[in-house]
Amino acid sequence: MTSAEIANKLPKDFIWGFATASFQIEGFANVDGRGKSICDDFSKQPGKTMDGRDGDVATDSYRLWKEEIALLAQYGVKSCRFSLSWSRIILLGGRNDPVNPKGIALYSNFINALLEHHIIPFVVTLYHWDLPQALHGRYGGWSNKDQIVQDYVRYAKVCFQAFRDRVKHWCVCFRYSVTMRL
Hints:
Elements: H1 3-9, E1 17-19, H2 22-25, H3 38-43, H4 61-74, E2 79-81, H5 86-89, H6 101-116, E3 120-121, E4 124-125, H7 133-139, H8 145-163, E5 170-171, H9 176-181
Parallel strand pairs: 1-2, 2-3, 4-5
């Protein structure tokens, strides 16, 4: 069955979409100012991931995102849920740490390309389990509510300021109940 045949079977107002998570697809953990996230260290521990794979390359979306968006458009996709990498936007993650202009540019260009292909950047996720490793090392990350809230608020403001003109739907934390239990 083709994409068009599937689309014809769905209600007219159905928003056909796909979802991704930055750590799972981007790769290029040490490129253009991205800092380490807790996922980087976790995935390198023996026995923690399938076949010992980590996120250093992932699906290489950091390099291939333009081709991936073209494929989504070809499939008739109307929306894309994706997450931003906190440590790609703010290398060390903290409220006083510098913003990475290359990280902002990457996601800005990605959002623009989605819109050019008539794909809604739908439910952009700020946190998908990829806390900057530096925050975990500094004060224990999520276990230190007083510190993490200040850093997260700053990160969220940076993202809203950079992308709010094009992103209308946000998710602040993917599966928060799991995150809070860790």
